UniProtKB/TrEMBL annotation:
Superkingdom of source: Bacteria
Domain HTH lysR-type: 7-64
Family: Belongs to the LysR transcriptional regulatory family.
GO MF entry, a single one: DNA-binding transcription factor activity
Any GO BP annotation: DNA-templated transcription
This protein's UniProt keywords: DNA-binding, Transcription, Transcription regulation
Protein name: LysR family transcriptional regulator
Entry-linked Pfam families: HTH_1 (PF00126), LysR_substrate (PF03466)
Keyword Disulfide bond assigned: no
Source organism of the structure: Pseudomonas brassicacearum
Amino acid sequence: MPDHRLPPLNAVRAFDAAARLGSYVEASKALHVTQPAIGRHVKLLEEWLGTQLFERTSRGVTLTSAGEKYHHKIASALQLIIEAGRELQPKTSERWLRIMVVPGFAKRWLTPRLEAARRLRPGLKFAIEPNSTFTDVDGKTADLGIVYGLDGEYAHSRATLFCPQVFPICTPGYLASIEPITQLADLLKHNLIHFDGEWWNTWFAANGLDVHLTSDVLYVNNDHALSVAESGQGIALANEVLVREELKAGTLVRVLEDQVKLESYRVLTPSAELSADAQWFIQWLTTELGREFSD
């Protein structure tokens, strides 16, 4: 007889978030639960299925072959559930703007300003989804996307918002505990925090120093790397959008004055025509970033 039992749905939801974001930490933030709770849900689902879904590493989690197959199917099923509910919900005057955003920008710049944006656009509501790996938006799961990268990486890059300066930062305590850093090469003597295998190499090259660094630990996104630096564990690269407030408060300091512009924040849009609210939001983003970083 076929088994018609459903798996524990909270566990499926936790697994889906961890699979999409590549990290229990980021999944916990997206679902507003603790990291151990994500781990318990995934373990429960693995026991229910009788197979391992993730490989756990120091860098986060990666799907096993079984996990990839399972996620492909349950992601489609979850989207069908979302769409079925949306079709049955009574049509109201509520206006939602669903925005997929790289985590650092979502947490450190956008979220603190959403209430001010909402007051400027009465009736508009926001649904924010931090996501480290997306390269487009389809208009179904998100109306807009905000990414940080090069233009050629994205199929539907609607607008370039801002290209910030990138420079090394750490805590005052960490800087006081190490040998003085007076030039680029001095950085190589210290613990450099990596979120991408080439990010430091690219930054050094743009500043005229050819190096080929590797790391045994890579973090899932720049926000995670900055959090590690904020805990006093080393030096990370940051852009001025992500750490402006921390630099003002003195909780982080610049290690050197060397800086360079590498990539830009960009808005991704679906192929369909944008709503008036989406067009307004893009203009608001452009204006606010230009106002704050015009100097």
